[in-house]
Every structure is written in structure tokens, then in C-alpha cells.
Amino acid sequence: MLWAARVLARAFGTVWELLSRLRPRPEAPDPAEELRRKLAEVRARDSEPLSATAEPASEPDQPPAEPDSIDLTSRRRDVHARARALSEEMRGAGESD
Question: Cys-Cys with 50: which of 2, 23, 54, 86 at CB 3.0–4.6 Å?
Fold first, then answer.
């Protein structure tokens, strides 16, 4: 009797799978077309002229920009030295716990 239930269940599963494969599936949108549509929207938005009120105001809190004459090698060394010091400080804080 158990074998009959297994055969019936397997037959039902096979029929269900065949019917589900025959069912028409909705087509997924083409990703390329979706990207083209978004790009067109952005280009249309960017081509519109900006009004004077739409321009971002500069914040007075920002530090002044650094001059371009700074030696990049010395700046790189300074950044590395600060990172090394911070790393050592963090290691020391972990060891004292």
C-alpha cells in the first residue's frame, strides 16, 4: 500500500512540474533597457538650467583648502606616521584591559 502512495505522489509531482513549466512566465525587464531609461532621465535632469537658489551655498565651517605647493612625499610620510601612532595607541589601549 505504501508503494502505491509513493507512485501516486511521484506521478502528481511530475504532472505538477510539467504544468508549471508550460505556464507562461512574465518576462523580466531587460536590464540594459532599464539602464538606458535611467541614463536618459539623468541626462534630461542635468540638461535643465539651474536657478540661482538651487546652487549649494558654501559653508563657512569648512577649513581652507591646502595649497598645492605642499611636498607630497612629506605629506605621505606625515600621514603614515600619524597612522602608526594611532595604531600603537590602539594596541596599547587593548593590552591594558
Answer: 54
Q: 3-state SS string over 52-71?
A: HHHCCCCCCCCCCCCCCCCC
Give tens-digit pLDDT for 19-69.
888 888 778 888 899 999 999 999 888 877 656 555 555 566 665 565 555
User: In the chain, where are the structural domains located?
Assistant: 72-97
What is the per-residue pLDDT for 92? 84
